[in-house]
Specification:
binds zinc ion, 337 residues, ABC transporter ATPase like fold, 15 helices, alpha/beta, 8 strands, 2 domains, disordered C terminus, two-stranded antiparallel ribbon, single chain, Rossmann fold
């Protein structure tokens, strides 16, 4: 089986045909071993792979798995901390005349550092309430009312807002507010480009859906904006997205390819599949009868493959929307917004 370099490949097939195993486990594990990276978590190490004659891995200098796992497991992680955007915000606050006068450094504006945070809730914004006979529940912190900082920290304002008020802004609102701060503006632009303009900067990691976590990871990758030879692996990135958001996401994935990277995704969405440069269809059926490559080629070629269960759907989709005009339509729709 060949996975072409520097293009976008969609791995398709009926459910149970082994798509996810191939991409998120086998390909990921092979690339990980080649690069000498540690496994992401314990379950990855249990995988035993017996593959001979793997070639071409030397073309990659980085492996990026853009999956739906949470960006953090506690409310101490959020969109702003994960993307690095909050570092820029804290520097802006530390540079204000009032902060300099009081000797507040950037650390003062972190809700994870003792000096600036609310000590009642230790910067969490809420406290655990123990109820007799009931599991503990969370209630807003009585001291800071969810703002996470102590009053002295909140006296420092930048353009009329304190740091807690900035964390309450949506990505869209923050794009205006922080337009003059290049490091923050870059992050915010990429977050908007993957359709996350509605998220609040301080939205805890634990409140984000798998799809949102995946798009935050993608945006974080995009903001690095470097040309490279990375291998990007994505498992159903369009799951649960509205068509307009799928269009946004596809545009970003094609940008990664244009910059010299290789993108491999597991996908069911026909619009996404026909926008790929290459398709690897697995089958012929699920379970024990899956796991074999039944067709590979451009979307047009796979649509004509007789053994492929995906082919008839692909053919029908292509006849109503030829791939090239579809992608052009997607791009125009996005750029006219
Ligand atoms: Zn508090």
């Amino acid at each position: 089986m060949d996975v072409p370099l520097r293009v976008m490949t969609a791995v398709t097939g009926v459910s149970g045909s082994g798509k996810s195993t191939l991409v998120t486990q086998v390909l990921a594990e092979l690339a990980r071993r080649h690069l000498g990276q540690a496994p992401d978590d314990a379950e990855d190490t249990e995988l035993e792979i017996d593959v001979d004659d793997v070639t071409g891995l030397e073309s990659f200098d980085r492996l990026v798995r853009v999956d739906q796992r949470p960006i953090g497991r506690t409310p101490r992680s959020n969109l702003a901390t994960y993307t690095g955007l909050f570092d820029a915000v804290r520097k802006v606050y530390a540079a204000t005349p009032a902060a300099r006068e009081r000797g507040y450094g950037a650390g003062r504006f972190s809700f994870n550092v003792a000096e600036g945070r609310c000590e009642t809730c230790q910067g969490e914004g809420f406290v655990t309430v123990e109820l007799l006979f009931l599991p503990g529940t969370y209630a807003p912190c009585p001291a800071c009312h969810g703002e996470r900082y102590n009053p002295e920290t909140l006296e420092i304002e930048y353009r009329g807002k304190n740091v807690a008020e900035v964390l309450a802004l949506s990505v869209e609102e923050a794009s205006d507010f922080l337009a003059d701060v290049p490091a923050a503006a870059r992050s915010l632009t990429t977050l908007s480009e993957v359709g996350l303009g509605y998220l609040r900067l301080g939205q805890p990691a634990t409140e984000l859906s798998g799809g949102e976590a995946q798009r935050i990871k993608l945006a974080t990758e995009l903001q690095r904006a470097r040309r490279g030879h990375a291998l990007y692996l994505l498992d159903e990135p369009t799951a649960g997205l509205h068509p307009a958001d799928i269009a946004l996401l596809l545009r970003q994935l094609h940008r990664l390819v244009d910059a010299g990277n290789t993108v491999v995704l597991v996908e069911h969405d026909l619009d996404t599949i026909i926008s790929a440069d290459w398709v690897i269809d697995l089958g012929p059926r699920g379970g024990d009868e899956g796991g074999r490559v039944v067709a590979t080629g451009t979307p047009e070629q796979v649509a004509r493959a007789e053994a492929s269960a995906t082919a008839p759907y692909l053919a029908a989709r292509l006849s109503s929307h030829p791939a090239t005009s579809q992608m052009r339509a997607v791009t125009e729709e996005v750029s006219s917004e």
